[in-house]
């Protein structure tokens, strides 16, 4: 009878981390800035991308990997805006992982791309744990979801370098304190960049797209 | 309504006026070894919970089976795992998912011993380490600190050790 005890000490997500590093190397070789866009369902991820594509048109080329449990509706919305898009259907899984992104990349022509946005599955919990090889994690919170969300989903706020507070045109109609969102987010993540936007009216989008364009230029080594 | 096949073997609907969108489909057991990650018609795809703990359980199993091969372990009895309190992992869900994915492997009867690692922060002003039970807790010495709090522990997801019996034991 041989009893064996083996000390292991291995990161459970080691395979995903390795795939994320491989994706990252590909992005860096091609000088493509990659954003991992996360929010709860309905916060406006696809609307932000439509607006961003319009703003970048003619100057920078955007491509999108769409993650959804079902349907290719979102990828088609972006194709209509002239954006190269590939759809991942997770068939139930609540997040994207490094391997899904690697497969999706085989279906994109990356050569003309300046910025690739990975639209994660709508969920404020699980996507926080899975790196995809992105340079920036960008999250969206819509004011209709309430100002308590930083308290309830702190990890997402802590790991996201950018917070877009969307649907500010709804502020007169919902019980949401915009300052409370800012204060709570800053307490969790003091270096997070926050942009208040409305995809409906266009308010605040210029500041976001100006930041993104500067980030694209910085990534290309142009500034 | 238009239907078709993409080069990735996915399906598409609508949008006859557009190029078909490449759609990559993942089955519910996409993380199980040997599963076709692109196919829609995978065995058992109606079974099992759809939480990310399933993916994490599969990753734990992959590590455990790899260590079994390296160290000649035939039956796994106990797996010690550390999970940070900040990690988005529910221990009960991870235990349940592990039982599902480990079926038919040397680890199917193993006890998954999950230790929750507390969130510990270091205050940048006084250097004090303090445990954060609530995400908005502040340094007990200095109160709220605007920036520079560093996370010392709390996001771990680690397989720490494996106990089992060797291959020379016979069946």
TrEMBL record, chain A:
User: GO annotations under biological process?
Assistant: protein maturation
* Domain of life, per lineage: Bacteria
Q: Where is the signal peptide?
A: none
Keywords from UniProt, A to Z, are: GTP-binding, Hydrolase, Metal-binding, Nickel, Nucleotide-binding, Zinc
Instruction: List each copy of the CobW/HypB/UreG nucleotide-binding domain by range.
Output: 34-195
Q: Write down the Pfam families for this protein, in alphabetical order.
A: cobW
Q: Could you tell me which InterPro entries the record lists for this protein?
A: CobW/HypB/UreG_nucleotide-bd, Hyd_mat_HypB, P-loop_NTPase
**SUPFAM superfamilies registered for this protein in UniProt:** P-loop containing nucleoside triphosphate hydrolases (SSF52540)
Q: Which GO terms describe its molecular function?
A: GTP binding; GTPase activity; nickel cation binding; zinc ion binding
- Report the sequence similarity comment from the record: Belongs to the SIMIBI class G3E GTPase family. HypB/HupM subfamily.
Name of the protein in its database record: Hydrogenase accessory protein HypB
């Amino acid at each position: 009878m041989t009893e064996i005890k083996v000390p292991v000490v291995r990161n459970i997500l080691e395979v995903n981390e390795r795939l994320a590093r491989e994706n990252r190397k590909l992005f860096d070789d091609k000088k493509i800035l990659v954003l991992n866009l996360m929010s709860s369902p309905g916060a406006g991820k696809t609307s932000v991308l439509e607006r961003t594509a319009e703003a970048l048109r003619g100057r920078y080329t955007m491509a999108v990997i769409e993650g959804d449990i079902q349907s290719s509706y979102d990828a088609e919305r972006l194709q209509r805006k002239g954006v190269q898009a590939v759809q991942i259907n997770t068939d139930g899984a609540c997040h994207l992982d490094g391997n899904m992104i690697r497969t999706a990349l085989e279906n994109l022509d990356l050569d003309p791309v300046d910025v690739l946005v990975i639209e994660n599955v709508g969920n404020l919990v699980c996507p926080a744990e899975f790196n995809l090889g992105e340079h920036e994690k960008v999250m969206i919170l819509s004011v209709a979801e309430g100002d308590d969300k930083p308290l309830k989903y702190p990890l997402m706020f802590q790991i996201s370098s950018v917070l877009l507070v969307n649907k500010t045109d709804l502020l007169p109609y919902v019980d949401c304190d915009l300052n409370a969102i800012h204060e709570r987010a800053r307490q969790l993540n003091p270096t997070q960049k926050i942009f208040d936007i409305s995809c409906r009216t266009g308010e605040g989008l210029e500041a976001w797209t100006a930041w993104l364009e500067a980030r694209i230029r910085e990534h290309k080594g142009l500034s | 309504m238009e239907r078709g096949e993409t080069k990735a073997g996915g399906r598409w609907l609508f949008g006859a006026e557009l190029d078909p969108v490449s759609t990559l489909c993942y089955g519910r057991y996409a993380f199980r070894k040997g599963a076709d990650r692109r196919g829609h018609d995978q065995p058992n795809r109606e079974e099992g919970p759809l939480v990310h703990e399933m993916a994490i359980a599969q990753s734990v199993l992959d590590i455990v089976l790899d260590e079994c091969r390296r160290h000649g372990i035939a039956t796994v009895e106990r797996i010690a795992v550390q999970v940070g309190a900040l990690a988005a992992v529910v221990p009960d869900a991870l235990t349940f998912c592990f039982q599902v994915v480990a079926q038919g492997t040397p680890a199917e009867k193993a006890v998954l011993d999950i230790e929750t690692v507390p969130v510990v922060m270091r205050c940048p002003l006084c250097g004090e380490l303090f445990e954060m039970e609530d995400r908005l807790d502040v340094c007990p010495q200095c109160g709220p600190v605007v920036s520079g709090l560093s996370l010392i522990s709390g996001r771990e997801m680690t397989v720490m050790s494996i106990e089992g019996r060797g291959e020379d034991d016979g069946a």
